[in-house]
Amino acid sequence: MLRRALISGLSTAIALACPAGAMAEQAFPDRPIKLTVGFAAGSSTDVVSRIVAKRAGEILKQPVVVDNRPGASSSAAARAVAASPPDGYTLFVVTVANAINANSRGTVGVDLPKSFVPITLLGRVPNVLVVHPSLNAKSLQDFISLAKSKPGQLSYASSGIGTSPHLAALQFDKVAGVEMLHIPYKGSSEAMTDLLAGRVNVMFAPASTVMRYVSDGKLTALATAGAHRSPAAPKLATLAELGLRNFESSVWFGVVAPAGTPAAVQTKLAAAFHEALKSEDVKAQLGTQGFEVEGMAPQAFARYMLEETDKWGRVMKDAGITLN
């Protein structure tokens, strides 16, 4: 009897000494976690998120459920998650689009450092410079020489003003010393349709999207804009290898939580996503998407987001682009 009383008293004392928040952190997660994706089901962001979420949920022993909230280049979803309770149960898949939009003066952008805490960079898909075969440019140097001989005449497609393909092309113009004509579309599928038809000459697009057209001879790949050669196209040289230094453009995906999320919860989530990315099955599935797994630590990811925001902000400023 005395022993039971002592144990009961000790348990009560511990419970009183531990704040409710601390006990909740220790029990985390005790219910499903929502992973918000700002793009439609079936999009590359959605596919990658679902692959990783499934394994992360198994590790955390609670489902990680993907919630698609498309619109406004994922800014609407970003704002919704930023306003959610900072308890680790609502996460957001942040992408390069959010880093670009963070430079907006209007309602499109969300201040990433103020709104979120980093969990991890999942990985990247490099943009690839592709041209229509009718252009008869077999190499990067061929293309640059042709573009210089026809300033403002060669056209490039993008999925819209201020998107990753658009800013990559603007950066290319500056680094290569050329001037191309921008043809913006309402989305990547429309842009790709016209490129395949030869109605526009060139485009920067993710390796996961374009390499199948290159394999079929429908497009010619000149270089990858990644920091290194892509596993999806190991024989394709980087722009840096071909002489265009200080040029890197990739579509990237990461996970963040609302600002104020407890450090213990942040650490537990980061560990789970890192472990998920190490899974051979996950790596194999992501590899079919042309995805290069990263698994970056939270603080390194925070620095990376700032670097990307600043880099694309400078490109936009130099080109006089303002997003509203």
Automatic annotation (TrEMBL):
It comes from the Bacteria. Coiled coil: none annotated. Keywords: Signal. Residues 1-24 form the signal peptide. Pfam families: TctC. PANTHER family: BLR1237 PROTEIN, TRICARBOXYLATE-BINDING PROTEIN. Belongs to the UPF0065 (bug) family. This is Tripartite tricarboxylate transporter substrate binding protein.
